[in-house]
Q: What sequence folds into this?
């Protein structure tokens, strides 16, 4: 009987220690610190099951935080796009290699006007084909 009591005490001590460490880790997770891990995930007992559950919870919290950040970025981008699109100034936004990624309504109207009148201009005969193509591409990319 004393061997069973000693085994039970050892298990209780191990569980108590795990719970104390786990509480500290849970507080870290609640504070948004995801670089912690609950010990015991390799165990094949109840402690291992609970430790794995906490790890899955941590992963879900990280994913939720990532999605919230991405959502906020999308909202901010939408606000910026709307503000730029409604500007009265001719505006083109390009990527790092110079491709137009945004053209506001004012610039689109200017490009359409230029493209419409360009063939009528006497000096436009010297315009290179790739320049005409670039104008056509800019028109097609406008919002």
A:
């Amino acid at each position: 009987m004393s061997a069973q009591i000693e085994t039970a005490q050892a298990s209780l001590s191990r569980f108590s220690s795990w719970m104390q460490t786990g509480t500290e880790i849970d507080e870290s997770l609640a504070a948004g610190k995801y670089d912690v891990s609950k010990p015991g995930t390799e165990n094949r007992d109840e402690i291992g099951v609970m430790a794995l559950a906490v790890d899955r919870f941590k992963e879900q919290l990280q994913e939720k935080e990532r999605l919230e950040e991405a959502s906020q970025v999308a909202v901010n981008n939408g606000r910026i796009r709307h503000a730029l699109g409604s500007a009265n100034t001719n505006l083109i936004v390009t990527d790092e290699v110079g491709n137009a990624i945004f053209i506001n309504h004012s610039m689109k109207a200017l490009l359409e006007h230029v493209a419409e009148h360009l063939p009528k201009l006497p000096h436009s005969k010297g315009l290179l084909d790739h320049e005409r193509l670039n104008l056509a591409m800019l028109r097609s990319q406008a919002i």
Remarks:
- The chain has two domains: 2-82, 89-141.
- The first helix runs from residue 2 to 30.
- The two ends are 81 Å apart (CA to CA).
- The chain has four helices and two strands.
